[in-house]
Every structure is written in structure tokens, then in C-alpha cells.
Specification:
Length: 152
């Protein structure tokens, strides 16, 4: 089954921008090697690391979103782990969001189709009863009147 994934990987900062391009291509080719289809890529640039990794205090953060069959995911993880240029990598399964128009249609359909159950009707009655509570301002006013001696 094909799933949507997000790969974030970290490359040591001792590479220049020009030397980074072949590393990006290498990761792209690995994804394509395992029949993955890249939908987007992003670079967050050179950032300071929270803690040193292999004596590096800075690194390039790069992100790919891709579709891949779940069977090939383990093989991709192994290959990325064997890539010396990468300091760290993480692959996360990502849910694909439906377009906003489609979601709005689904919500309208759900609102019109689902009737209220008896339990929901009872909950509404209970919430209306709770609206008759005393407000905090009214309580403060009464307390002031009691303390001033107006009410005894």
C-alpha cells in the first residue's frame, strides 16, 4: 500500500552549498530507486544544532515529501543509514489532507444526515439548566452588601 511520508535529514555543515547538491541528488535517487515519488522538497538552510553530532555544531536541514510503498520503506531507511554524508534522518508517515472544498462538503453532508440521538437531546437540556447559574459579578455584589451590613 502506498503511503505519504516526510523525510527530514541533516547534512554536516562542513560541506559547501555546491557540495550539497550531489548529496541531495543521492537522497532523491535513493527514494526513486525504491519506487518513491517525490511530491515536494524544501531546504531550511544551515542551522545551529541543539547538541553536537559527530563533532558538528551546525548542519543543513533538508526535507522531502514523497509517496512510497510501505514494503520498500525499510529498505530506504537502511540505505539512508548507510549514507555517510547524513548526520541524522527521520521518516514520518504523513496524512494527506483533502482539499478544503471537499472537506466542507463532507461536513455539510454529516450535519444533514445524522439525526440527534435521545442522549444528545438530554445533554442539551442539561446544558440549558446550567445556564441558570449565578454569575461571579452577582456573587461579588451580594458579598459586598453582606459585608457592608446592608443585608442581615
Amino acid at each position: 500500500m502506498i503511503n505519504h511520508y516526510e523525510l527530514l535529514y541533516l547534512v554536516a555543515s562542513n560541506y559547501t552549498e555546491e557540495e550539497l547538491l550531489p548529496i541531495k541528488e543521492k537522497v532523491k535517487n535513493l527514494i526513486k530507486k525504491f519506487e518513491g515519488e517525490i511530491s515536494s522538497e524544501d531546504s531550511f538552510g544551515k542551522k545551529k544544532l541543539s547538541y553536537p553530532i559527530k563533532k558538528n555544531h551546525q548542519g543543513y536541514y533538508l526535507l522531502y515529501e514523497f509517496d512510497l510503498d510501505g514494503i520498500n520503506l525499510e529498505n530506504l531507511k537502511k540505505e539512508l543509514g548507510l549514507t555517510n554524508e547524513l548526520l541524522r534522518h527521520i521518516i514520518v508517515k504523513k496524512a494527506i489532507k483533502a482539499p478544503a472544498k471537499a472537506r466542507a462538503t463532507e461536513i455539510k453532508i454529516q450535519e444533514t444526515v445524522i439525526p440527534k440521538s435521545e442522549m444528545e437531546k438530554e445533554e442539551e437540556k442539561e446544558s440549558k439548566k446550567d445556564d441558570k447559574r449565578i454569575k461571579l459579578e452577582d456573587l461579588d455584589q451580594k458579598l459586598d452588601e453582606i459585608l457592608e451590613g446592608k443585608i442581615i
